């Protein structure tokens, strides 16, 4: 049986992670940062998004507590905020899911 304290804390953490990963760009950023820290402009170029989009996504990930900014002179790089996150993402990549055709595809999503 789970304790209420553990349930509330764990549920909040998983909800933040789920929100972060619900967007393909944010999920791609997390996967890229599990390899190494990176600069926003490099992430934007690698993922094919504008720098403004990248800035917004990094702000969201910072707000969720998943990434942190590291000032480096006039530039700022980003890295995963917790050392446990990279191995957790690696484990998630090993999960094989069966997805119903049409599920989670826009307005046909039964999850909403």
From TrEMBL:
Gene3D superfamilies hit by this protein: Winged helix-like DNA-binding domain superfamily/Winged helix DNA-binding domain (1.10.10.10)
Pfam family, one: HTH_5
Example GO molecular function: DNA binding
This protein's UniProt keywords: DNA-binding
Domain HTH arsR-type, chain residue ranges per copy: 6-100
Record protein name field: DNA-binding transcriptional ArsR family regulator
């Amino acid at each position: 049986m789970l304790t209420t304290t553990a349930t509330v804390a764990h549920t909040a953490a998983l909800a933040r992670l789920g929100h972060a990963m619900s967007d393909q760009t944010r999920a791609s950023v997390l996967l890229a940062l599990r390899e190494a820290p990176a600069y926003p402009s490099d992430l934007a170029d690698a993922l094919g998004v504008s720098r403004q989009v990248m800035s917004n996504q990094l702000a969201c990930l910072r707000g969720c507590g998943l990434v942190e900014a590291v000032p480096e002179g006039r530039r700022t790089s980003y890295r995963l905020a917790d050392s446990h996150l990279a191995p957790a993402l690696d484990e998630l990549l090993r999960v094989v899911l069966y997805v119903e055709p049409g599920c989670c595809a826009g307005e046909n999503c039964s999850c909403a």
